[in-house]
Amino acid sequence: MYLVRHGSTGANEGGKRQSPETALDKNGEIQAQKTANWLSDKKIELILSSPWARAKQTAETIGQKLDLPITFLKILQEKAHNPDLYGASFEDEIHRQYVRESEKDRDNIDWKLRGKGESVREMLTRGVEFEAMLGERYREKTLVVVSHAYFIKGLVAICLEGKNFDTKEFRERYKTTPVDNGSISLLENEREGSNWAAVFLNLL
Q: Can you give the pLDDT at residue 54?
């Protein structure tokens, strides 16, 4: 399974937070094309993607290069924030509150800003469901999964460390796994088992 993070968007450089509709910027389009080129000889059979705009664009660039259709799955979308954060300026109070409280509660995976959106635990639960889906539907497939930083970090931790989100090993893997824009990671699964191994992480 090749895990691909979408290309860059430039939203943060514009002083605003991203939303599900945030599109790739020019650099992100270049990153997506480079990723597609790198994957072109890897005998990919299937592309799965988050439906959020920046992931969708990245997946479509890959799909065009590989001449493959794309299946869009909500389960692959990024961790949902409080919707009032989407598109907010970095000067807005809700963003400032997010920065303060997320730092204060960084070890609390059940935290949500003002009780809205999705907690890290809820996002990780989606990751567990997707990992099970891989075994049930796609075990014999060489596939590309296009998603977002938090979700990819969580999925890597689930595959490599297990499903207990509260262990030290899981927390450390989740916090430290690098996932840059346009990066590719490769996880391989034993055909007859459920053990995953990281061949490489965060290849650009």
A: 97
**Cβ-based neighbours of 80, under 8 Å, separated by 6 or more:** 117, 118, 123
For the chain (length 204 residues), average pLDDT per consecutive 10? 94 81 95 97 97 98 97 97 94 94 90 95 97 89 96 97 95 96 93 78 93
What is the structure's pLDDT at 139? 82
| Rg, the chain, Cα only | 17
Beta strands 184-189 and 70-72 are: unpaired
SS (H, E, C) 93-142: HHHHHHHHHHHHCCCCCCCCHHHCCCCHHHHHHHHHHHHHHHHHHCCCCC
Q: Are strands 184-189 and 46-49 parallel, antiparallel or unpaired?
A: unpaired
| The pair of three-digit structure tokens given for residue 90, joined into one six-digit string | 């970095």
What structural domains and CATH numbers belong to the chain? Answer: 2-80+119-203 (3.40.50.1240)
Query: Does residue 172 contact residue 74 with C-beta atoms inside 8 Å?
Result: no
